[in-house]
Design brief:
Blueprint (H helix, E strand, L loop, with lengths): L5 H19 L6 H8 L3 H8 L2 H27 L2 H18 L1 H8 L10 H21 L11 H24 L2 H4 L6 H17 L1
Length: about 200
């Protein structure tokens, strides 16, 4: 039997890891479990990912790649500006709700022995920097230093991320009282923050 091409095996291992996380949680992710699910020896994991931490790095980075694509598509389709920020916040939520286990692994990788690599640490921030640039653009300041809008970008990100975390918690542990509450509208907070930032600019 011919061995699968290198790229196919890497993709299969990553896909197996994502399936295990989705079905059993990140704590179930082991080199042996991934190799068995992918139909290869544990050497395959070490060859392509240098072990468990490298595999988790790949899970995290693939998640940010997919999230970035979703956010960029939402921004472009909306035409940018205020509507773009609303659309990307909604896309952020939709992606997290569709991939809750991977989302949790990306932002709270509570996996014994895992320490993200420097490149993975840097990769996670690229998503925030893209968000910060969109905030600057929405404030008609795309040509300015995007770090000028760091605080606004952080507040908007924190609300969206916090909203997602609460909604995921509600889905998992909802009581009758909690389930009766409607999810908050992201547009309200975005409009408030844009108005606040615009006043700062005018002042």
């Amino acid at each position: 039997m011919l061995e699968a091409p290198v790229t196919d095996l890497r993709a299969r291992l990553l896909g197996s890891a994502l399936t295990i996380i989705a079905e059993q949680g990140a704590s179930a992710l082991t080199v042996r479990a991934v190799a068995k699910a992918a139909g290869c020896s544990t050497m395959g994991v070490y060859t392509h990912f240098s072990g468990k931490s490298g595999l988790i790095d790949a899970v995290v980075e693939s998640g940010f790649d997919a999230l970035d694509q979703s956010l960029a598509a939402a921004w472009d389709a909306s035409g940018g500006g205020r509507d773009g920020l609303v659309a990307t916040a909604e896309a952020y939520q939709a992606w997290a709700f569709a991939s809750p286990a991977q989302f949790q692994t990306m932002f709270a990788p509570a996996i014994a022995g895992y320490e993200p690599s420097e490149s993975t640490r840097e990769r996670t921030w690229e998503t925030f920097y893209a968000h910060r640039a969109r905030v600057a653009s929405a404030l008609d300041s795309a040509d300015a230093d995007p770090t000028a809008w760091h605080d606004s970008a952080t507040r908007l990100w924190a609300f969206t991320h916090g909203h997602v975390a609460v909604e995921l918690l509600r889905q998992a542990y909802a009581t009758a009282d909690i389930a009766a509450f409607d999810a908050s509208e992201v547009s309200v907070v975005i409009d408030h923050e844009l108005a606040r930032a615009s006043m700062d600019i005018a002042g």
